[in-house]
Amino acid sequence: FPGPFTDVVTTNLKLRNPSDRKVCFKVKTTAPRRYCVRPNSGIIDPGSSVIVSVMLQPFDYDPNEKSKHKFMVQTIYAPPNISDMEAVWKEAKPDELMDSKLRCVFEMPNENDKLNDIDASKPAPVQNTSKQDGPMPKPHSVSLNDTETRKLVEECKRLQAEVMKLSEENRHLRDEGLRLRKAAHSDKSGSPTALALRDNGSNSLPSLLVVIAAIFIGFFLGKFIL
């Protein structure tokens, strides 16, 4: 019986009948209060076997105390007609009885076995068993690293500064265009110089917008597509 003995410990006995006749069996113990035997008696057919469960009840184990518990398995050939099993054993003659004696052995697990049990009780690490259709993509092909991110942020700041600068220049040109248009309206003579300046101021606005749009499109195409 392997310890520890803080709970019920069960050991199985396998009884086999190698003869060509039915055999009656009975299991006895010197410590009936310590053990529970199921089944403790029965009949085994020729060439068959039966499993007997011997359950040791919990107790305080003392390694210095030697075990004196013993079991005895008695057998006898079954008579042709069996009506009362108790009567069969009472009427059996001593020379008809066969018996096998077993001595109980208590074993406590050593330290190595305890460590193995603890390791076996730990959950195994979960591995990623999902299959991929192709090779795993490299990390830099999925996301930007820190250096590229800093460069992108700096480039965005530079473009924002240029946009603000162009917006300021565009505002100055728009104000200049409005001033020239007012001057042109006030100039009754309709001089060619005033008309040329007005056309130059009005035509500069679309050109600046085209330049700003081209800068943004070129930047994002270069960073995310190429």
Highlighted features:
single chain; 226 residues; alpha+beta; Immunoglobulin-like; three-stranded antiparallel β-sheet; rod-shaped; VAP
Structural class per helix/strand content?
A: alpha+beta
Spatial separation of the terminal alpha carbons: 74 Å
* Beta strands, count: 7
CATH architecture classification name of the domain at 9-103: Sandwich
Protein name: Vesicle-associated membrane protein-associated protein A
Organism: Alectura lathami (Australian brush turkey)
Transmembrane segments: 205-225
Membrane topology: Single-pass type IV membrane protein
Topology:
Blueprint: E1 9-16, E2 23-29, E3 35-38, E4 41-44, E5 49-56, E6 70-77, H1 85-91, E7 98-103, H2 111-121, H3 139-142, H4 146-186, H5 192-225
Antiparallel strand pairs: 1-5, 2-4, 2-6, 3-5, 6-7
Helix pairs in contact: 4-5
How would you portray this structure in words?
This protein is of the alpha+beta class and 226 residues long. Among the domains are: 9-103, Immunoglobulin-like, CATH 2.60.40; 147-183. The chain is 43% helix and 20% strand. It has helices at residues 85-91, 111-121, 139-142, 146-186, 192-225; strands at residues 9-16, 23-29, 35-38, 41-44, 49-56, 70-77, 98-103. The strands form two sheets. It has a four-stranded antiparallel β-sheet, with no helix packed on it. A three-stranded antiparallel β-sheet has the order 1-5-3, with no helix packed on it. The chain is rod-shaped and about 150 Å long. Mean pLDDT is 76; it is low at 137-142.
